[in-house]
Amino acid sequence: MIALDIALDIVIIALLAAGTAFVAVGTVGLLRFPDLATRLHAVAKADNLGLGLIVAALVVHVLREASAPDDPAGWGVALKLLLIWLLALLGTAANSHLLAVPPPGKTDGKGKERGEGGRR
């Protein structure tokens, strides 16, 4: 039983370290990249992956600390954590889209209005 606890501690620490590293790299990308599109890409991808790894570590911790393997309270907290991650994914996608696409009637800097000329 002690070996399992040590192994789970190692998994939790590894997930937290990896998640923190991805969030840090996303923040560096936000500060270093030159234009809005690359900044949004760095933040959206790296931070969502980092948050997912951190949530995975928290889920492992919550389920390990539950009083029994079939404890509904532990599974409820794990489900809430996954829901938080899902909402963060959806929010990041919506925010990135709203920031990257110019409003109707505005130009994109190349003289084209929104909706002209295919993909961006």
Automatic annotation (TrEMBL):
Keywords: Membrane, Transmembrane, Transmembrane helix. InterPro entries: PhaG_MnhG_YufB. The chain crosses the membrane at residues 6-31, 43-63, 75-94. Residues 107-120 have a biased composition (Basic and acidic residues). Residues 98-120 are annotated as: Disordered. The keyword Heme does not apply. The keyword tRNA-binding does not apply. It holds the Pfam family PhaG_MnhG_YufB. GO terms for molecular function: sodium:proton antiporter activity. It comes from the Bacteria. Coiled coil: none annotated. Belongs to the CPA3 antiporters (TC 2.A.63) subunit G family. This is Cation:proton antiporter.
